[in-house]
Amino acid sequence: MHDPIQKWSDEPGSSQQNRTSSRWHCALPASVRAKVWDGPTRLFHWLLVILLAISWWSHPMHMDWHRDSGLAILALIIFRCIWGFAGATTARFKHFLRGPEAIARYLGQLWNRDPVKHVGHNPLGGWSVALMLAGLSTQVVSGLFSVDIDGLESGPLSDRVDFETGRWFAVVHGLSFTFLEILIGTHLCAVSFYLLYKRTNLVTPMVSGWSRLPAHPNVHFARPVVAAAAAVFASACAWWVSTGLRW
Ligand code: HEM
Ligand code: HEM
Q1: How many CB atoms lie within 10 A of CB 132?
Q2: Of 76, 113, 133, 226, whose CB is crowded by the most CB atoms within 10 A?
Q3: CB 195 less than 6 A from any atom of ligand 2
């Protein structure tokens, strides 16, 4: 395991862990206050929640809002994909997309009621994040090509496909929303399960960025200029898509 911040939480024999506890992420004394989520990841999350609510509310009466909030979500997805490689350690895909062994180990202690302290997403949560990003991408891409039954309301790329295909995208758009609703419902159940059953509050760290941990995690944060460059690039891409990919 090369990732330094996994050591005390995931490796049964790690030296960090020996200093704090003898078991893998069990009820450790939470003594250190440490920053675990960077600002861009938190901003991404809460903007996503607001924009999804606007997309949901605005259909079918306010289609301009619907398209604009959807395009803003597209910018967020592009940003998050870049941030998965350039962001803080906890935001990186390679940190939270774990193999079957880590998932099996995590499932083995799922019903353990001791408060759990993961640095970043747990091994199962990491894959649910990937699934949510895939679901959101399907939602947005299908929306870009969708046409409604009268051909009056359409996505900015719908003129690239014929009417039948645009209608097919609209069906995918509807189905993908149902899929997203299931994912979001599961997400909220998981957060509540952690709060009520495992007595671990995951929401406050997603708001403030800080968490109480048994030992100081070795989380590295990217420079703000990298976040700014990624945000400008992502917004420019979404704007270009909104023009129908015309120069
Ligand atoms: C660029 C992004 C998006 C565009 C261009 C877009 C466009 C459209 C269009 C043209 C329709 C009408 C389809 C029809 O009446 O058959 C539609 C419907 C809909 N959109 Fe979007 N949309 C986008 C993003 C989203 C997002 C992020 C959500 C998530 C909340 C969403 C949820 C829905 C729902 C629930 C419907 C109704 C589907 C149905 O009638 O079965 N859209 N969208
Ligand atoms: C539209 C609804 C929501 C969507 C689509 C959504 C999506 C996501 C995504 C994609 C992440 C991963 C963040 C990242 O690494 O970039 C995440 C994490 C998280 N979300 Fe949400 N979220 C939603 C609503 C909420 C709400 C309402 C809450 C609080 C009550 C919440 C609490 C959290 C927490 C605590 C985490 C971090 C989990 C962890 O510690 O591993 N989410 N969410």
Answers
A1: 17
A2: 76
A3: no
Query: Is residue 35 scored above 70 in pLDDT?
Result: yes
- Give the ligand 1 atom nearest the CA of 147: 10
Element of type H or E holding 35: strand 32-35
Q: Which ligand is nearest to the CA of 50?
A: 2
86 lines ligand 2 (CB under 6 A): no
| Cβ 52 under 6 angstroms from ligand 2 | yes
Q: Which residue has the tokens 């997400």?
A: 187
- What average pLDDT does range 215-230 have in this prediction? 96
Q: Residue 176 belongs to what H/E stretch?
A: helix 163-196
Please report whether residue 197 resides in a domain: yes
Q: What is the pLDDT of residues 113-132, one digit of tens each?
A: 877 778 999 999 999 999 99
CA of 51 to the centre of ligand 2 (A): 13
Condensed to tens digits (0 to 9), the pLDDT of residues 10-31 reads 433 333 433 333 223 434 556 8
Residue 32: inside a domain: no
CA atoms within 13 A on the CB side of 241: 23
In a domain, 20, yes or no: no
Amino acid 134: pLDDT = 98
* CATH code for position 122: 1.20.950
Check if the beta carbon of residue 9 is closer than 8 Å to that of residue 25. Answer: yes
Domain membership flag for residue 13: no
With a cut of 60, say whether residue 3 has pLDDT above it.
no
Output the CA 227–ligand 1 centroid distance in Å: 29
> Which residue range forms the structural domain that includes residue 97?
39-242
Number of domains in the chain: 1
Global confidence as pTM: 0.91
